[in-house]
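Q: My labmate handed me this sequence with no annotations at all. I'd like to see what the chain might look like in three dimensions before we decide whether it's worth expressing. Could you predict it?
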Amino acid sequence: MKKKLLLGVMAFVSSAAAFAQTTGAAAAVSATGQVAKYVAAALAVSTAAIGGGLAVAKIGAAAVGAMAEKPELSGKALPYVGLAEGICLWGFLVAVLILFL
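A: Here is what I predict for the chain of 101 residues:
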């Protein structure tokens, strides 16, 4: 475990030194870098949407079943569905941060 942690820290430190730019260098991003940004943003949105959909499916079914038996539970069950939908919003936020920062 310690070897893996040490290896990870060393890889992080060396990657920061390898990709560092000088102040006089142009800040142009290559075409490969642009494609990588778009792929990363697409993966962030797609995985968040799939995860949010699965969460809403499970939680929504349980919430509707609980409300069918006891209608007074609607106030307690529906916020959980909203929290599951929030997963998709976080994925979109991450994609925006990837694209514009």
